């Protein structure tokens, strides 16, 4: 019996080694939880191209939207653990347990972790003809027009929703009407068209619109000013205390994916993050590329756990009830 067990273990190890040596042998699917053209989609498609060059196969970016990114995450959690189906997700991976009562996956136990990708600051923007010209004027305007101003977001679980909830709770104006959309694209389209008043979203989506004057910027959600928008004051320096929002992204694989495969994808991630074209594209959009420590398997695992523990109490304090 012991002989058979040892033989089975040796054969299994040999099979795994052969699989890892031949990996990848076909295109890899990178699932994106949000709509095409949105902030996460922009990062994912640039990264897929850079990683594909290192891997020697095509990394196919595919959008699978719905339920704040949980449909995509559940799909990957249930996929074959062979390294050919991966997930790129943002901060919403850590807030899902606080937003959904019947979550079909556990972010902390149902995945293998490849590494973090980029941190993306956010900006609070408004339609270009909104009367206030800075945050202090905006605050006074909101006070004088309680119940008459609306704030768009990209739907439940989207970081624009999270940012909006935090912003309104910090200024104690939860009576501002929130308008959920099916993605960042349509929300931003209506903001530019003047159909909605405000939106809090990632610089990957807002930078060029701010620079071209198509939306009015009220502040960055970071502690320090953004290199890509040096003339835009932070909300903090304009008087909004205890408010910071930076969106982080990570890559995940189904639980049970062999470690050599996880390591190979991690190596491709690190190569992709160092790719000059990718670095240039992210710099233009205001995204901050993860350090090698953050882009490690353990870096993502540790960060995700800390974020899950952080967001639960925050969402509860903001009065957000799980669906």
Strand content: 15-25%
**Mean pLDDT score:** 92
Order of helices and strands: HEHEHEHEHEHEHEHEEHHEH
Work out the count of structural domains: 2
For this structure, what is the CATH class of the largest domain?
Answer: Alpha Beta
Which architecture of the largest domain does the CATH hierarchy give at level 2? 3-Layer(aba) Sandwich
Give the biggest sheet.
10 strands, mixed
Q: Roughly how many Å is the radius of gyration?
A: 21 Å
Unreliable segments of 5+ consecutive residues = 3-14
Please describe what this structure looks like.
This is Tripartite-type tricarboxylate transporter receptor subunit TctC. The chain has 323 residues and is of the alpha/beta class. The protein contains eleven helices and ten strands. The protein folds into two domains: 28-118 and 247-317, Bordetella uptake gene, domain 1 (D-Maltodextrin-Binding Protein, domain 2); 121-220, Periplasmic binding protein-like II (D-Maltodextrin-Binding Protein, domain 2), CATH 3.40.190.10. The chain has helices at residues 2-22, 39-55, 70-77, 92-99, 135-144, 159-170, 184-193, 203-211, 259-274, 276-285, 297-317, and strands spanning 28-32, 59-63, 85-89, 111-127, 150-153, 177-180, 198-202, 215-220, 246-254, 288-289. Strands 1, 2, 3, 4, 5, 6, 7, 8, 9 and 10 form a ten-stranded mixed beta sheet that branches. The termini are far apart.
Name the descriptors.
10-stranded mixed beta sheet, globular, D-Maltodextrin-Binding Protein, domain 2, alpha/beta, 11 helices, 323 residues, 2 domains, 10 strands
